[in-house]
Amino acid sequence: MTSVRPTPADPTPGLVAAREAGDQRALPPELGPDSMAVLSGPTFMYADRCGDVPPGSIGGLVHLDTRLVSEWVLSINGSRLLALRAGTLEHYAAEYVLTVPEACGLPADSLGIRRQRYVADGFHERVSLVSFRPEQVRFELRLAVNADFADLFEVKSGVRDRSAQITRDHCPDGAGLCFSYAADGFSAETRVRSSVPADRVEGDQLVWEIELSSRQEWEVDLHVPLPPGMGVVEPIRGDIADVFHRRVEDPLRRWAEERAVLRSDHQGLERTVRQSRDDLAALRLDLEVKGQRILLPGAGLPWFLTVFGRDTLITAYQTLVGGPMLAHGALLALARLQGRRCDDFTDEEPGKILHEVRSGELTRTGVKPYTPYYGTADATQLWLILLSEYWRWTHDEETVQFLRDNAIAALHWIDNYGDRDGDGYVEYATRSPEGLGNQCWRDSPDGVCFADGRIPVLPIATSDLQGYTYDAKLRLAELADGPLADPGLARRLRADAAALYQRFNRDFWIEERGGYYAVGLDGDKTPIDSITSNMGHLLWSGIVPRERADTVVRQLMAEDMFSGWGIRTLSRAERRYNAIGYHLGTVWPHDNSIAVLGLTRYGYRTEANRISLALLEAAEHFDYRLPEALTGFQRERIIFPVPYPTACSPQAWATGTPLALVRSMVGIEPVDGKLVVDPDIPAELGRITADRIRAFGKLWEIEAVDTSGHVRLASG
């Protein structure tokens, strides 16, 4: 009997009857495209345009991967409210202006309702009402609340019914609700406190009987405290009115304002970079890793407010131009959690850098392997690349020397565990029944496929992994010649890189269709022949010979790849192309930023600027915040960019993208202890200046226009 071979869609055949399919749920219609979230570190409240969380939706109050509130619906006389307008004040605060429908038993628009909320060390909401009727009115205000304590993994797929283990201990005086859950050693609690006791409590609903005369106002404050622990970075504190009118100190704003400041003749660029700075502040996580407090970016709202390997490392690389703090935190945090042993369930191996850390019930009770989970084949190389880039920007030899053993362990993983069969390539295949099938950045089950649509067999060696490995070895050789003081290691690494360069350009190059690089080699060493955006990553790594660069750039910028908003993940010529497919034709800003840096490296500034301008124009359609991914629809057919349905926003490496684009356009590079610039600024952007750029322990100022620019040390 022929055995079933593993593929990314079924990586462990026979081990489990059914596997989760990754990104299972699209945005449900009950939240809709106007849904909005407020967040602070690993905490967020996700609601519809009225501020409600309907039961059964993906919305709710989530803290450290546990949903503490799964229903939060405000109604008057049994009718849902109507939204007039809603918006965020800051990433942590939002306001909703509402009114009543005629169906509620009152005349339409006869009440004005305002909901103001923010998250910090808890969730705070103020509900304010005012009557516009000339006569006195009576009505019932009702807040329906529930807490299902779902793990975030379940929110994405299907929530297990925990009602039998949830106890309700509501305050008899109407001052609050309490939900408690305990099972299998995991426990959680949600308390809702009301500044105005409800007139009655019906089940899990607070009910107020309100009587208002003309122009009379009424308000109630609601508070859901968070459990104690790490996670929130210097939360804002104060009365809701003081928060909204900025009468209290905002530590995050102070942090953002201490970063580098960019100015441009082009308002869109300036506002997009400012939004990136603010979003990076919002996504910061304050963690304790083996006794040390560390600051680093979480990956994205709502699904990935946690530590990631690949996402965190690429974000830190993108944002080094704005300062080294996030890179320093990422290097230390990931080093402290570096793999020490072989563990099939978590895919851990000695020297390997983690993929993802989670804190919810499924992880803490051993159902899921995220303690951390190590199922990624690229984070280890990216950690070495970031270590090198951090040193190039800081000359912080002390940190590099402190991380020497981690760097050597990472190299050992690449050569002994990453290269599973000794052929000189890094491959991946999970050993865990809960493991990821694809362990490159294209990590959906069909993210790597043949041109004819077939899913390859495992293990797979994708092209980006080889490019990263090549770059990592050359960069580690540079460190070995410098702060690590090991010239023998440097010679060996350069020889390894040269051999990989030759082997890769022999085995991955396909002459057909004008010439291009395969996205990978499958378990039979057959080239996986689809045309993908991975070629941009190869330019970034430097593994492409100069004589092939023209061909690669022509492929990336061809109409089947370039949508007008950016480079697609997969060519429109391939069988599985889908403009709304996660890795099958969408446009990812971070993916494009890597391509832009690669194009700049090879001197293709015109093409790099074309992509940069397209992304900046796309950002303007999203209030100057790039989402995680855009659909791949052709710009000529649809006049505005369309987000991928479940795109995270803000999302760390999309947030870091504008800084990478600026680095490309201005040509900022650290060289021998100083900054240099080689500008090629598109005429549309005019002059670009930047202050407070941190490099080598000093502050720098940059000014550039067209192809001219200069750098100087900041005065004082």
TrEMBL record:
Origin: domain of life: Bacteria
Domain Mannosylglycerate hydrolase MGH1-like glycoside hydrolase stretches: 464-621
InterPro entries referenced in this protein's UniProt entry, alphabetically: 6-hairpin_glycosidase_sf, 6hp_glycosidase-like_sf, GDE_N_bis, MGH1-like_GH
Listed Pfam families: GDE_N_bis, MGH1-like_GH
Domain Putative glycogen debranching enzyme N-terminal: from-to ranges: 40-222
SUPFAM superfamilies, per the entry: Six-hairpin glycosidases
Protein's name according to its UniProt entry: Glycogen debranching protein
